[in-house]
Amino acid sequence: MIGAEHFLIVSAILFAVGVTGALISRNLIMIFMAVEIMLNAANLAFIAFARIHGDMSGHVIVFLTLTVAAAEAAVGLGLIMTLYRRRGSVDASKFNIMKW
Amino acid sequence: MNLSGANIDFTLLLPEISLAICGFAILLLGVTKRGKDFGFGLGLFGLIAALAFTVQQWGTLETGFFGMVTKDGFSSLYNIIFLLAGIISLLIAQTYLRAKKIDKPEYYALVLFSILGMMVMASSYDLIIIFIGLEIMSIPLYVLAGFHRFNPKSNEAGIKYFIIGAFASGFLLYGIALVYGAGATTDLRLIAANYHSMAQQAPLLLYAGVALILIGFGFKVGAVPFHMWAPDVYQGAPTPVTAFFSVGPKAAGFAALMRILDFGFDSMDEIQSVLWILAVLTMAVGNILALFQDNIKRMLAYSSIAHAGYILVALTVGGEGAVASGLYYLLGYTFFNLGAFAILTILDTRDGTDSRFSELTGMASRHPFLATLLAIFMFSLAGFPPTAGFFGKLYIFSGAVEGGFIWLAIIGVMTSFVSVYYYLRVVVACFFTKADHPFQQVAMNPYLALALIITAVGALGLGLFPSSWIDLSRQAFASFL
Question: What ipTM was reported for this prediction?
Answer without folding.
Answer: 0.95
